[in-house]
Each structure stands twice: as C-alpha cells, then as structure tokens.
Design a protein that fits this description.
The chain is an alpha+beta fold. It contains three helices and nine strands. Strands 1, 2, 3, 4, 5, 6 and 7 form a seven-stranded antiparallel sheet that branches. Strands 8-9 form a two-stranded antiparallel ribbon. Helix 2 runs antiparallel to helix 3. The radius of gyration is 17 Å and the shape is globular. The chain starts with a strand and ends with a strand. The C terminus is likely disordered.
C-alpha cells in the first residue's frame, strides 16, 4: 500500500503508576502522497528526521522537511505528514510535560509548549547551531531508553529538559518572554496534590 507507515523499536520510561512518561519510537513511510487526517495525541512530541524528505502539514501551515529537521508539538496539536518525496525515518519522543516539572514556580522548560509567541514554528530553525544539539539529544535519549543502563531515568529527563531549554533560549521568538502565564491547570497536579 502506498504511503503505509511502520512503527518500530518502541522504548518507554515508565512512572510510578505504570504510565508512560517518555516514549521513543521510530516511524518510516514509503514515498507517496497521503491524505491529510487529523492526527494528535495527549502527549507532547519532539521528533527528528533521520532520513528522507517531504511535507509536514500543521494547522494551516506546510513545512518542508529533510534529514536533520526537528519538530515540536504540544499535546493535542494536530499534525500530519502529507507528502513523502523519499522514504523517511523519523525518531519520535512522546512525553508527559510533568516529567520535567520539579518546581511549580519554574515554568522555563515548558514555555515552548504552553506560552508560545505568534512567531512560533513547529519546525525548529535549521540554521541555529542548537538544532543539531537537540537532534543529537533526541538520539541520545532514545539510546538511554533502549539500553536502560544505570541512571538512564535521570539522563533521559535531563536530555529532554536540556532540549526544551535550548529551544527557549536559542529560539526566544517562539516564547512569550517574561510571561507570567499561570501553569496550565491540567498540569497543576503533582503526586495527586494541587500545588499552590
């Protein structure tokens, strides 16, 4: 079937209650045109294309993608790959934002997810040197989840946090600088208790 997708090598960092906090997996799709369909999920997504090229459709925007490109989506943000020029391999990270939340007063790493400015683009600027660092972090994080060596949980969280803070720092136009926007209510629970 033209444009058939395959998902493989899924690895997960599981929380205390058995829920997936961070999940990594690879996707590959053969070349061809695909019909736009509403695709979204509750988890946030940070992903990088390891090979291939095509078009990613997000809301009313289309982004050309190629190997090395990095994309970021908030939870429930619709996105769909609609045109594949050459078969691609995509490394996806799906994560619950709470995996990064240690201090309810420090919203820094999550501004890129919840306090976006109008200039935000889902494809992270290719020419910024941090894009390569973020791409490498995604690959390293997948390795940590797959190998599960001693300390992998802390390293995985660190790599994810490091990537999101790099986005906030190096792609500042994407965030509402100095935003006092309150922490989203759906994320304001930690260990079953509401934080103040």
């Amino acid at each position: 079937e033209e444009g058939a997708a395959m998902r493989y090598n899924e690895n997960t960092l599981v929380g205390q209650n058995g829920e997936a906090l961070i999940k990594s997996f690879f996707s590959t799709v053969r070349a061809g045109r695909r019909e736009y369909r509403e695709h979204h999920h509750a988890e946030c997504e940070l992903s990088t294309f390891l090979s291939g090229s095509g078009t990613y459709s997000v809301k009313n925007r289309e982004y050309e993608f190629k190997s090395g490109d990095v994309f970021l989506f908030s939870g429930d943000e619709s996105h769909c790959i609609t045109n594949i020029n050459s078969e691609f391999e995509l490394l996806n990270l799906h994560f619950q934002p709470r995996v990064l939340w240690n201090d309810p007063d420090d919203f820094t790493a999550m501004k890129i997810l919840f306090a976006r400015g109008k200039a935000f683009e889902n494809r992270i600027e290719r020419t910024n040197p941090s894009t390569r660092v973020i791409c490498d972090n995604i690959i390293r994080l997948e390795n940590e989840l797959r190998e599960k060596r001693s300390g992998y949980r802390a390293v995985a969280k660190h790599l994810l946090c490091d990537s999101l803070i790099a986005l906030v720092r190096d792609f500042g136009k994407a965030c509402v600088k100095g935003s006092q926007k309150p922490f989203p209510k759906r994320m304001a629970h930690r260990n079953g208790k509401r934080n103040r």
